[in-house]
Specification:
By secondary structure, the protein is an alpha+beta fold. It has helices spanning 6-17, 22-44, 66-79, 145-152, 221-232, 250-260, 281-294, 325-336; strands at 53-57, 63-65, 85-90, 97-98, 108-116, 127-135, 161-167, 171-176, 181-187, 192-197, 208-210, 243-244, 263-266, 279-280, 298-300, 317-318, 320-323. It binds 6-O-phosphono-alpha-D-fructofuranose.
Length: 337
């Protein structure tokens, strides 16, 4: 069968299921092209003069890498002229970015982490772009960036689309519009994303967990109990041996789980309690939770479903536990005990 490009897939999804209105199709294609440009920039590495620090900090007070800033600019410039967006928000910007007056506004809001896993950029380990699409509420106040923040504060269950690009040995685009999860592989010669997997399913059971073990002394009791039980393996209460992975790029860890199952945890711990958690709700936890649930997995903070959270701030942080349903429900149950 002829290869199905992203454009063909989106067109046929709209024709058969009416799930992807023209402006959303355009938005997804624009984001995909931006991810392709980011992939090219990353691929150059030292030869492209894009490694190392940018000399600035982001809203979280973290030093920005040159590629963080470049990826953010690529996404802003790709999206602001199309007439499909009302505003954008990014991990790299304190306030929302309004569509300039010289361009028409559309009905969608786009949030993104332009380059997730920054600590891995300079050591050639997989990193990614995460994005989430919401509808702009009727009558939203977009008179200033400060006023526009309110329009974004919608629960993850309101997302109309979400996805990530993972820049690894190959560049993949993983996408949901609420009808399951599909995977596209970038054909660099053609410069096209080609559909390579439909109906991604996360196995309900797993033997693989992902957590930063160096935080062990800061975890809450339910997480300590759960990790101890997995480390105890066959001799422990779970009766099987577990494996561990921690790439420190959420996109890469989540993609492994989308591919073969597993549980990813960045739980609440004493170090991050005053900030609410490590990962950001609007452009990390929510899009990943939408994708994981659409692939048959589960995503909670340990105490509530991530997609149910009513955001209070644009850069709000939350604890994240997501992946294989049986394991997420087990450790979430421990929090209830
Ligand atoms: P740590 C990357 O900075 C990130 O936001 C996620 O992609 C990743 O899962 C996590 O932080 C890694 O955190 O504490 O292990 O460096």
């Amino acid at each position: 069968m002829a290869q199905r490009t992203l454009a063909r897939y989106l067109t046929e999804e709209q024709r058969t299921k009416g799930l992807i209105p023209a402006d959303l199709k355009f938005l997804i294609e624009v984001v995909a092209r931006a991810c392709q440009a980011i992939s090219v920039a990353i691929g150059k590495g030292s030869l492209g003069g894009v490694l190392g620090e940018a000399g600035s900090d982001n809203v979280q007070g973290e030093a920005q890498k040159k590629l963080d800033v470049l990826s953010n600019e690529i996404l802003l410039e790709a999206n602001e002229w199309g007439g499909h967006l009302a505003a954008m928000a990014s991990e790299e910007m304190d306030l929302p970015h309004l569509v300039p007056h010289r361009f028409p506004k559309g009905e969608y809001l786009l949030t993104f982490d332009p380059l997730d896993g920054s600590s891995n950029i300079d050591v050639n380990v997989s990193i990614g772009t995460i994005f989430s699409v919401l509808k702009c509420p009727e009558g939203a106040d977009l008179s200033s960036p400060e006023a526009a923040e309110q329009a974004f504060l919608q629960p993850g269950s309101a997302q109309v689309a979400a996805g990530y690009a993972v820049y690894g040995p190959n560049t993949l685009l993983v996408l949901t519009v609420g009808d399951g999860v599909v995977v596209f592989t970038l054909d660099r010669e053609q410069g096209q994303f080609i559909l390579t997997q439909e109906n991604v399913r996360i196995p309900a059971e797993t033997k693989e967990f992902a957590i930063n073990m160096s935080n062990q002394r800061f975890w809450e009791a339910p997480v300590k109990r759960y990790v101890d039980e997995m480390v105890a393996g066959k001799t422990g209460p779970l009766g099987k041996d577990y494996n561990m992975r921690w790439i420190a790029s959420m996109v890469a860890d989540v993609h492994r789980i989308m591919s073969r199952g597993g549980i990813f945890m960045y739980p609440m711990d004493e170090k991050v309690r005053d900030k609410g958690g490590k990962l950001r709700l609007m452009y990390e936890a929510n899009p990943m939770a939408f994708l994981v649930e659409q692939a048959g997995g589960a995503a909670t903070t340990g105490r509530e479903r991530i997609l149910d959270i009513q955001p209070a701030k644009l850069h709000q942080r939350v604890p994240v536990i997501l992946g294989s349903k049986v394991e997420v429900e087990r450790v979430t149950g421990y929090h209830a005990d």
